[in-house]
Amino acid sequence: MRLKDKVVLITGGYTGIGKAIAKCCVQEGAKVVVNGLDEEFGLALVKELGADNSAYITMDITEESAPQLLVKKAISKFGQLNAVVNNAAYIASSNIVSTEVPFIKRMLAVNSIAPLMIIQAALPHLSSVRGCVLNIGSINAWGGEPDLLAYSMSKGALMTLTRNLGDSLFRENGVRVNQINPGWVLTEKEILNKKEQGMKADWYKDIPDIFAPAQRIFTPEEIAVACLYWLSDECGPVSSQVMDLEQFPIIGRNLPKNWEGSHKKK
C-alpha cells in the first residue's frame, strides 16, 4: 500500500475529484479527513469509506477559523497529519466586462488565499513527519479562456504559491509542495453546469476534437490515481513542480483551421 499509515486532509472532498482522491487514498492504506459544504454528502462519504478510515468536517474554507479547525480535526481523530490536498475550488465564468470586485475577491479567497492559510496551519505537523502538500490547480492557470478570467487568475496565483513554497518549505522544513493542473474533468458539477448553460443532457458524449483528441474528457478517478505519486514516498525529493494532466500540449499547440467553430454549444 503506497500510503499506509498516512493521514491526508482533503478540501472539497465530498464530490468530484476530491471524493475520488479520498477513495483512492483509503484504498492505498491512508486515513482521510475530508471537507466540503454539504453535510449529507460528508456523512455519506464517511459511511462509504468507514469511520475508522475517515472523518469529515463541513465548513467554508474561507472562514477565518477554518484552517486551524481542519488541522485540529485530523490531529484529534488520527493523531498526525502527513499530507494536505488543497482541492476545494470556486469555479464560475467571468470576463473583463463582468468581473466585479466582490466576485473576484471571493474567487481569490477560495482558490488562492485559503490554500495558503491551510498550509500555514498544517506546517508544524507536516514538518514533524516530513510531509507534503498537493495543490489541485487547472490548466487555465497558464492563461485560461476569455470567459474564465477571474478563475484563471486565481489558479495562476495558486501555481505561483506552489512554486514558491515548494522551494522554501522543502529547504527549511522538509515539506514537499507540488501541484497538478487537470484539464477538463467529468465531475457531477461539470455535468450540471454545462446543462445549465444550455447544452444537451449528454453533452459529454460528443466533445469536439479540439478539446478531446481521445473523444472523451477525464474522469475524476484518473486524476486521483495521478495524485498518488505526489502524495506517496515514491515522490522522493521532488518539490515545487507543476504537472499538467491534459490530452494535448497547453503551450505551442497547433490548432486546426476549423477550431473557431468547434466549441459552439449544440
Give the low-pLDDT segments. 261-266
List the strand order in the largest sheet: 3-2-1-4-5-6-7
Q: Per CATH, what is the topology?
A: Rossmann fold
**Discrete helix count:** 8
Shape: globular
Overall number of strands:
7
CATH class equals Alpha Beta
- Sheet having the most strands: 7 strands, parallel
Beta-strand content:
5-15%
CATH architecture: 3-Layer(aba) Sandwich
Helix content: 40-55%
Q: List the secondary-structure elements in sequence, H or E.
A: EHEHEHEHEHEHHEH
Organism: Arenibacter arenosicollis
Protein name: SDR family oxidoreductase
Describe, in plain words, how this protein is organized in 3D.
- By secondary structure, this protein is of the alpha/beta class.
- It has one domain: NAD(P)-binding Rossmann-like Domain (Rossmann fold, 3-Layer(aba) Sandwich), CATH 3.40.50.
- Helix content is 43%, strand content 13%.
- The protein has helices at residues 16-27, 39-49, 66-78, 101-128, 149-173, 188-196, 220-231, 259-262; strands spanning 7-10, 31-36, 54-58, 83-86, 132-136, 176-182, 242-245.
- A 7-stranded parallel beta sheet has the order 3-2-1-4-5-6-7, sandwiched between helices.
- Strand 1, helix 1 (16-27) and strand 2 (31-36) form a beta-alpha-beta unit.
- The chain is globular.
- Residues 261-266 have low confidence and may be disordered.
